[in-house]
Write a structure and sequence with these properties.
By secondary structure, the chain is mainly beta. Helix content is 13%, strand content 42%. The longest helix is centred in the N-terminal third of the chain and has 23 residues, at 3-25.
Length: 237
């Protein structure tokens, strides 16, 4: 790989992670617009338990034995299909050797199936987003959110620090709420496009969707007291 190509990929990675940091800090204000907007936590933030290595990152394996470890976060709208989700990934060989690492960006929300709310599932402690060298400190959870189970399918682009980018389909399953029996395993699945391998064995990782309550405008106190607003018309002589 040329030095210019390597520099471009590193620069793109830094830009992506910078955008992700801004996205995380904007959670409390971004996701209060309509009833179809969700926050996605994929093996990151409050879901990560230092005493439980299976909580983060989310790991998925292919039949051949190699694996992807992924973390991520962002927002998406289930109604208009807009999406702002990104994260980090590590690709390992069957014997655990590092093959590639980098960032991923979601380009499209294909679909989202909600399993319903699970109010008692929200963790209270904060944590880190991602893994070294891409780890970022995460702000507290927005107070106006409700943990929700569901299955989201995204089209994503994998941007490794070295090598060519790849397009893939990422399936994220949160086993909360009224979970169908065939979707009882929490985790991720990944399918690389252009006849690439499928990673369909969910190994570990916590996933959660947070439904954001719509922002409600404060009622007019004057109208509540039954006082008519003052007239702005000029009296006639």
């Amino acid at each position: 790989m040329s030095s210019l190509r390597a520099f471009s990929i590193r620069a793109m990675t830094k830009v992506a992670m910078g955008c992700l940091a801004i996205l995380l800090l904007a959670f409390p204000t971004m996701a209060q617009r309509n009833s179809g907007e969700y926050i996605l936590l994929l093996a990151s933030g409050s879901l990560c338990d230092p005493s439980d290595s299976s909580s983060c990152p989310a790991t998925v394996k292919a039949d051949q034995g190699d694996s992807y470890e992924m973390s991520g976060a962002g927002t998406f709208d289930a109604q208009n299909k807009s999406v702002k989700v990104a994260g980090t990934f590590t690709h390992k060989s069957p014997n655990g050797n590092l093959l590639e690492t980098g960032v991923w960006l979601a380009s499209e929300l294909v679909r989202f199936d909600s399993y319903g709310a699970a109010p008692g599932a929200l963790p209270s402690k904060g944590g880190m987003f991602g893994r070294a060298p891409f780890a970022l400190k995460r702000p507290p959870m927005p107070p106006s959110s409700t943990p929700t189970g569901g299955l989201a399918v995204f089209r994503i682009r994998l941007l490794p620090t070295q090598g060519l980018s790849k397009d893939a389909v990422l399936q994220v399953n949160s086993a909360l709420g009224d979970v169908p029996s065939e979707r009882s395993v929490e985790g991720i699945r990944l399918a690389l496009e252009k006849n690439g391998p499928e990673f369909s064995e969910e190994v570990s990782g916590r996933v959660m969707f947070l439904l954001m309550r719509p922002k409600v405008s404060a009622p007019d106190k004057t109208a509540q007291r039954g006082i008519a607003p003052a007239s702005t018309e000029t009296p006639s002589n």
